[in-house]
Amino acid sequence: MKLIVLGADGYIGSEFMYRNDIHHDIIVVDNYYKRTLLGEEKITPLYDVPYIHEREWKCKKSFIDITDSSAVDRLIKNFKPDAILHLGEQPSAPWSMNGAGKATRTIDNNLNGTLNIIFSVLAHAPDAHIIKIGSMGEYGTPNVIIPEGWFDLDYRGRQDRLLFPKNPHSIYHLSKVFESDALAFACKTWGLKVTDLNQGFVYGTTSEARSRYCYDAMFGTSINRFIAQAVAGIPLTVYGKGGQTRGLIHISDSIKCLELALQNTPTAGQFVVANQLTEWKTINDIAAMVVGAAEQMAITATIEPIDNPRTEQEEHFYQADHSVMQDYGLRAIPINHALLMEQIDLVRFYKDNIKKELIFPMVKWSKRG
Amino acid sequence: MKLIVLGADGYIGSEFMYRNDIHHDIIVVDNYYKRTLLGEEKITPLYDVPYIHEREWKCKKSFIDITDSSAVDRLIKNFKPDAILHLGEQPSAPWSMNGAGKATRTIDNNLNGTLNIIFSVLAHAPDAHIIKIGSMGEYGTPNVIIPEGWFDLDYRGRQDRLLFPKNPHSIYHLSKVFESDALAFACKTWGLKVTDLNQGFVYGTTSEARSRYCYDAMFGTSINRFIAQAVAGIPLTVYGKGGQTRGLIHISDSIKCLELALQNTPTAGQFVVANQLTEWKTINDIAAMVVGAAEQMAITATIEPIDNPRTEQEEHFYQADHSVMQDYGLRAIPINHALLMEQIDLVRFYKDNIKKELIFPMVKWSKRG
Q: Helices (DSSP H) in chain A: which residue ranges?
């Protein structure tokens, strides 16, 4: 299979490549945008990871900016991919909420990248399968079960099958909603083939610490932050009441989902949506699990709720369908102490690199007087 | 009231100004983007209309590009408006579907303009009421009654109140969906005040022919095209089966809705959605009404279905709530022969200006092989 992997320098992209470089004819693409943002914010990950041009993957390498429509057009015209795995996004919700400039940069980067892919695929490789990674945060926290995109609506005595309305948590998530809407439109209107993945929080260590690990409040997820706090001997900062419930998936299962998506090409015009999570927990439960796993490693960790910097529901119903990937054959690993202990072990190895000041929230959602 | 009117050079914007310039302290804004597009496409409206700088409105005038964030920021910081009427958009569905360049220009112009308004209002005038004109075409043609934005969802035994999922007809409509989603997010997250208007096809003549009249297949609506065809003595080109049903509103009622929206400021954080239409008809029924009105003026018109250049349902259920404006006090004028005869009379006056070749569809939706 001729495959383009956009955003191969990231946490998921690089791990995907380590496991899949020999299975396909691949061009990886990254312009090191995430590294640029980390540099601007003076944030360092837990350890350095090699640049793509230093990695020994069996693939071609491209360093174009996917917001450059001509460059994307040339790439797709020349390579004519069978599939495109699109991970080339500004990935941080807090960064996107840190003022108008970063909000619009997030939307520009994420939406324009996806639009360029759509139009180049339409022109040069209309049968290519586009796989885009989104987030469960696009849905927000509705008081009903979250379906996998499509749902059967019964409204005032009539019925239709529509895409479930999303209610994103941040400008970052809003940008992802825009992308999903654009991709759904491209399927409906031009017959493109798209799989749209709404991913939960990804956690877990990659083998040999070869993918980037962010533990800061800007780019790290809550599990990564909690583990860094436990190892650094400072309290785990739960935002607000901690009843926020979020979908979870281990990095191994996340990569497995991408492989399964690649093996299941939609028909022309089909917009497949999968919720890429295997379970869900409250933030309080996640913090308690980290404390428990740390305890088994003789690390005493405590939890300290702080004012919630975000605008979000802190106590709510949560249930999300996730059978598409199960039907494709995913057999998920549920979160457990052993997996967390493996991650704690990695972080402890790099303990001296932890900068405590990076873990406390830097961005507040609400700026209105 | 201190009011900013964005897009005051357009059909609706200029008519609004003729009726409202003395009622408010207004800055009108337009960078003549629509005139630029008409020039690029070599399309001429039915008659010339004055430029804003030539119009004798009682207001200040600005010629900034609203996609320039610094310029929007200065405008809102200095004027501190009570309300912003946002009509500054690329308004054509076919233009937006005419290749990747025009698609992305449409999204850039429309979305970035709205984002700049959101962030400048948030920074400098957070109590300002933003009124944005969207389109009923954002909803598409669901098989259920279209609510006014918010709807009560009963799904698998649980309930929530959410925004109804949209299913836009074109890249232009998709750009409007993006804007609505961004505005809803701004209300929820930062407590802004927004009225989002989903307008049907606007028809009807403005007094003294002082607003632009497009009858071409790119920028003119179906009623305008049909009337130009009747006057020019060529068949009315119904696209496909003609069972496409669309909401309608007369220009006088459209302006009245804007005035009513201005009088009804949402509370902080409230996202008010109104469907700005007063009735709906199939394209076949609209064509037949034009033929009937023409007949009363001794003009013989015929209807000739042509292949549909668009990807859309040609026969479908249609019903849309529209009580918000009624509750505000709108008493609507239904479409009738007299109103159409008034419009036919205007077009007949400028009959020699009609270029028949502009009325036939220039853009096809589906380009996939």
A: 11-20, 33-41, 69-79, 93-96, 100-124, 171-190, 222-232, 251-263, 283-295, 323-328, 337-349
Inter-chain residue contact A143 with B160, CB threshold 8 Å: yes
Residue for token pair 């890249």: B171
Mutate which: B162, B176, B318, vs A, most A CBs within 10 A: B162
CB contact under 8 A, B103 and A112: no
Architecture of domain A2-358 in CATH? 3-Layer(aba) Sandwich (3.40)
Contacts of A103 in chain B (CB under 8 A): 115, 119
Cα distance between residue A344 and residue A341, in whole Å: 5
Interchain pair B155, A160: CB under 8 A: no
User: From the CA atom positions of chain A, what is the Rg in Å?
Assistant: 20
Three-state secondary structure string covering B318-363: CCECCHHHHHHCCCCCCCCHHHHHHHHHHHHHCHHHCCHHHCCCCC
d(CA B343, CA B63): 31
Is 0.80 surpassed by the pTM of this model?
yes
Q: Which residues of A touch B69 (CB under 8 A)?
A: 100, 104
Question: What is the ipTM metric for this complex?
Answer: 0.96
Interface residue A119 vs chain B (CB under 8 A): yes
pLDDT digits 0-9 by tens, A130-169: 999 999 999 999 999 999 999 999 999 999 999 999 999 8
Do residues A165 and B155 lie in contact, with contact meaning Cβ atoms separated by under 8 Å? no
CB contact under 8 A, A115 and B123: no
Query: What residues pair up with A62 in beta bridges, in sequence order?
Result: A29
Full strand arrangement of the beta sheet holding B83-86: B60-62, B25-29, B2-6, B83-86, B129-135, B193-199, B271-276
Provide the residue ranges of all domains of chain A, joining segments of one domain with +: 2-358
CA–CA min distance A1, chain B (Å): 22
Tell me which chain A residue has its CA closest to the CA of residue B142: A160
